[in-house]
Write a structure and sequence with these properties.
single chain; alpha+beta; Butyryl-Coa Dehydrogenase, subunit A, domain 1; Butyryl-CoA Dehydrogenase, subunit A, domain 2; Butyryl-CoA Dehydrogenase, subunit A, domain 3; four-stranded mixed β-sheet; four-stranded antiparallel β-sheet; 12 helices; 46% helix
Length: 389
């Protein structure tokens, strides 16, 4: 794995860096680094405007084919973009669910009509999306979903509930795994539907988290409808499409995570130097280990992305690595903050950056596939161990 830039990549890096330097000005510069997990409430409209500026200048959907609004960027160029984005301390983007999850899914599994209908809105950040996978009785065990849809003439009618739906309160559309064959169970009989959110049959209820914020939501479908041709892939074959989406989620999107992690670690290091925590040899050692851990995470992700074969179950290794790293980073942040990290800044529950990071990262090893599930995948599909009972 060669981590040095080629001449073409060096030119691309300079282009990205110059554009960011030219456009991260005024209110966008003042909003540097805002947003991200546990902080999605921060100036959403300004971040949306920033995302649309990126789209206007062709900096969204880098990996997509040009015919669908992308740049056909190589993996190396995508990594460079994310690295420079982190260096510039740009606002955390808001259109990533559509761009990094649904868009590649439609390119791989959708029809030309679906691509023509939905990809321009994603590339231009005109349509925001949410992911309707988890349910109260189906978290990491996605095959247990019970939300159902029935074909009624030229439309699907949907009933059921999704939960832990990120940014559903802002979304225009939801891509959801639903059961479309009555009496089916597990992986059979599932379909992958695209459902408009702005309709009477959809109710979104924000979930108040430990952080006091609400980027996750419950979504209730009570007779919600969508057009009959808004099913991606064949009806009843949605499991394959859903697994394809998860593969994209754990692909280049993991580089986005490192953008946030690197910022957080830099700020924690700066805090330790300013409040004297860096003089504590134990904390100093933990900070050093965190820097090493972040580089190890980067190498792990690059090895997966730059490999000759699709990642497949190897993406579970990446999930285990980044989630445990980030949870540890939250613990380190609170320890560096010291006694100040134990009390809220004001009533009733005014948390600072480090308290919010600590609380939110407790969930990192659960959402997106719990550690237990990921370890089972690694054991069975990579190491070849027998399946558990």
């Amino acid at each position: 794995m060669d981590l040095t830039d080629s001449a073409a990549d060096s030119a691309f890096r300079s282009e990205v860096r110059q554009w960011l330097d030219d456009h991260l000005t005024g209110e966008f510069a003042a909003a540097g680094g805002i947003g991200g997990p546990g902080r999605e409430h921060e100036d959403f409209e300004l971040r949306l405007a920033w995302d649309r500026l990126l789209a206007e200048h062709g900096w969204t959907c880098l990996s997509w084919p040009r015919e669908y609004g992308g740049r056909e960027a190589t993996t190396e160029q995508q990594i460079i973009f994310h690295e420079e984005y982190a260096r510039a301390n740009a606002p955390v983007r808001v259109g990533h669910i559509g761009e990094e999850l649904l868009g590649p899914t439609l390119i791989a599994f959708g029809t030309e009509q679906q691509r023509a209908r939905f990809l321009p809105g994603i590339a231009g950040v005109r349509d925001l999306w949410c992911q309707g996978y988890s349910e109260p009785g189906a978290g990491s065990d996605l095959a247990a979903v019970s939300t159902a849809a029935e074909l009624d003439g030229d439309r699907w009618v949907v009933h059921g509930q999704k939960v832990w739906t990120s940014l559903a309160q802002h979304a225009d559309w939801c891509f959801a795994v639903v059961r479309t064959e009555p009496g089916s169970s597990r992986h059979a009989g599932l379909s992958y539907l695209l459902i408009p959110m702005d309709q009477p049959g959809v109710q979104v209820r924000p979930i108040v988290q430990l952080t006091g914020t609400s980027e996750f939501n419950e979504v209730f479908f009570d007779g919600a409808t969508t057009a009959a041709d808004n099913v991606v892939g064949e009806p009843g074959q949605g499991w394959r499409v859903a697994m394809g989406t998860l593969g994209f989620e754990r692909g280049i999107g993991t580089v986005d995570q490192q953008v946030v992690f690197r910022r957080e670690l830099a700020a924690i290091t700066e805090l330790a130097e300013s409040n004297g925590a860096a003089q504590d040899p134990v904390l100093r050692d933990r900070i050093d280990r965190a820097h090493i851990g972040l580089e190890a995470l980067r190498c792990t992700v690059l090895r997966m992305l730059c490999g000759d074969t699709p990642a497949g179950p190897q993406s579970s290794v990446v999930k285990l690595v980044w989630s445990s790293f980030h949870r540890g980073l939250g613990e380190l942040a609170l320890d560096v903050a010291g006694a100040d990290g134990l009390t809220a800044r004001g009533a009733p529950y005014d948390l600072d950056t480090w308290q919010r990071l600590f609380l939110f990262t407790r969930a990192d090893t659960i959402y997106g596939g719990s550690d237990e599930i990921q370890r089972n995948i690694v054991a069975e599909r990579i190491l070849g161990l027998p399946k558990g009972n």
